[in-house]
């Protein structure tokens, strides 16, 4: 993991910017964590960013506050959808990073939305081979 992604993975909130078909940027604050050599993030499977990520894997990331106000310059990255096993692993990583509130949010989401109600993405630098 490069230094910039490592720094972002350690921050509390990350601004994930996806792109509409016309190129319009759509920024969204998310929880993120480090999973091995990748930054990972968790989101609802019916969110708009998931639809945009199906079409375009290139994203921008920046550190942000809970409301999505950027605290750093954006960096380019590439998102990859994780399978069910990877998503389960990332849920545990997120719960560990965010403590009791993370556990409560993630597991209540799984309880009310089901296992397929949320999905996770792994993020790498554009030139990375992972």
Automatic annotation (TrEMBL):
Gene Ontology molecular-function annotations: coenzyme F420 binding; oxidoreductase activity, acting on the CH-CH group of donors
Gene3D superfamilies on file: Electron Transport, Fmn-binding Protein, Chain A
Alphabetized UniProt keyword annotations: Oxidoreductase
Domain of life of the organism encoding this protein: Bacteria
InterPro entries for the chain: F420H2_bilvrd_red/Heme_oxyg, PPOX_F420-dep_Rv2061_put, Split_barrel_FMN-bd
UniProt-listed SUPFAM superfamilies: FMN-binding split barrel (SSF50475)
Any GO CC annotation of this UniProt entry: cytosol
Protein name: Uncharacterized protein
Taxonomic source organism: Kibdelosporangium phytohabitans
Lineage: Bacteria, Bacillati, Actinomycetota, Actinomycetes, Pseudonocardiales
């Amino acid at each position: 993991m490069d230094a910039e992604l490592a720094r972002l993975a350690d921050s509390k909130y990350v601004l994930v910017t996806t792109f509409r078909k016309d190129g319009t940027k759509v920024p969204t604050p998310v929880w993120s964590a480090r999973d091995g050599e990748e930054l990972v993030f968790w989101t609802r499977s019916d969110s708009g960013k998931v639809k945009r990520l199906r079409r375009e894997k290139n994203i921008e990331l920046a550190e942000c506050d809970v409301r999505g106000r950027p605290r750093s310059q954006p960096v380019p990255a590439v998102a990859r959808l994780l399978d069910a096993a990877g998503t389960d692993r990332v849920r545990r990583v997120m719960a560990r990073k965010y403590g009791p509130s993370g556990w409560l949010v993630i597991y209540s989401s799984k309880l009310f939305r089901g296992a397929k109600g949320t999905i996770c993405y792994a993020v790498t630098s554009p030139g990375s081979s992972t």
